[in-house]
Amino acid sequence: MITWRRVTEQDFGLLRAWLAQPHVARWWHHDTSAEAVARDFGPAARGEEPSEDLLVMLDGTPVALVQRCRFADYPDYRQELADQVELPEGAVTIDYLLADPTRVGQGLGPRILRAIVAATWTDVPDASAVVVPVNAANRASWRALEKTGLRRVGTVDLAPDNPADERAHHVYRIDRPADAPS
Fold first, then answer.
1. pLDDT in tens, 92-116
2. Which of 110, 121, 126, 160 would disulfide-bridge 147, Cβ 3.0–4.6 Å?
3. Domain extents for the chain?
4. Strands (E), the chain
5. Which CATH number fits domain 2-175: 3.40.630.30, 3.30.565.10, 3.40.50.300, 1.10.3720.10?
6. Per-residue pLDDT tens digits for 14-70
């Protein structure tokens, strides 16, 4: 069973370990010092920032991190993307990592993403779509989005998380189903 809860400051040690995993560090390129993790994840954990950092569990065991936010809460990011691809009002975005390298490639990523997307329609009643830019070189990530039901709607030029990567990002989108609660 897949469940999740908001990340708390007590989870920062776990996040540090996950961010240090080579398969995660490759794409997240995050400073794993205690200070950096507290700086970057603390505001959301304390409710001082509108984004959600969600600790995802499989049968009670933490296995993934999902970040979810409304584009409207980050106007500069929204505008950068909207200048290059259609971005509907009310769109939400997610970012994600699967922590355990032994679980990669076994279908867990798409299962988690499907659950989060389905919950978004209830959790964010005004969400019109989930739109996710993903580095074009990160094939595993964009394949997980495709398996989740998102469709590629364009390729845009965005700063990569890892400076070693190119700027090309594929943009994936799924619209709120007509029968989703509002």
1. 999 999 998 888 878 899 999 999 9
2. 110
3. 2-175
4. 2-6, 52-58, 61-70, 92-98, 129-135, 151-157, 168-175
5. 3.40.630.30
6. 999 999 999 999 999 999 999 999 999 999 999 999 999 999 999 999 999 999 999
